[in-house]
Amino acid sequence: MLSKAKVEKYDIHQLKEVCKVVLDKISKDEDTTVAVTFRNIDKWFNPDIQIDLSRIRRAIQAVDSQLIRYFLWVIMSEVIRTGSNDRTSTFKLHRRSEENIQKRDINVIKEFTILVNRGIDDVALYWDKLAKEIKLNEECRNAEADIRWGNTKESIEIDTRFDLLVSSPPYGDNHTTVTYGQTSYLPLQWIDPRDLICPYDYVKTTQEIDRRSLGGQTIKKKILASIVPLYEKTPTLKSFFEGVPEEEKEKYYKTLSFIVDFDESLDKIISSMKDDAFYIWTIGNRFVGNREVPNDQILIELMESRGIQLFERAERHILNKKQPKKNNYSKTMEKEHILIFHKTAVL
Ligand SMILES: C[S@@+](CC[C@H](N)C(=O)[O-])C[C@H]1O[C@@H](n2cnc3c(N)ncnc32)[C@H](O)[C@@H]1O
Fold it and tell me: pTM for this one?
């Protein structure tokens, strides 16, 4: 949904008109019923916030254009992030202290209004910049984007074969790196499910999405069965894991489980690509227990084991992140690697 909201070409005039109606509807809504119910709703949202979010939700649901609903759900997600009782200092769900909750003075409707107006300006600016700076021609401007939901561990549900991949995989299992699932759990409770495509109950528990993501389930039997062929593909992973003292190995099973899943995904991904395709991967070497996991070298070896060579590399420094850098580990990444691969690479 986020991707769709980002790539679609809005008619700015229509967007402005619809948003005006939405904001007007919210301001006139005196209904105090709470539109959603889920376990622990009162833990995460104060009663007045629940009422205001319900007003926002009702107004978005009344919008005919699905595309504009996407835009508005994304903005609503941001006010859920800042208006809930969840701390913004960590990706994990962690309730603020009682004292902090009492002290806060939040008006989600006011915040939503500001962000909707800013969002409209941003969309207009974005297309304007693209047109001016990249001199976007009509053909590019009108190009279609087809966005699909999928689990790369299972399949890439499309028959087309692609020329180019530009992506960034997770840098480890979600539980110990970025808990994408936990961080999206609260917004997902409010967004109308008819605007989300997902074949499983993604809000069953706060852990469900992370559990289903790469490395989300540490099944030792599966890891042990995959480890020998995996080590053949990536000797760097072998020496990394063998270098971990016996008493600390337990901590690294999640890391192994992630690489096992990622390796499986690469098969699915590569089979969707043309033989002479280019791959641009951004990856970071995250830390586990103060040890840097050499994800860049592991990815290079996994690709090379499939006959696809590294062609070019670059680094980028992580200057600032909207979300905090805090996680379970003492050290966090300072840079990311951009790795470009091609099957018949010439160095
Ligand atoms: C570092 S982020 C990169 C996001 C985006 N691919 C990009 O390149 O900007 C990694 C993403 O991989 C997603 N992910 C984790 N496991 C996945 C899986 N099995 N199938 C598809 N995506 C997965 C996470 O939810 C997260 O959004």
Answer: 0.90
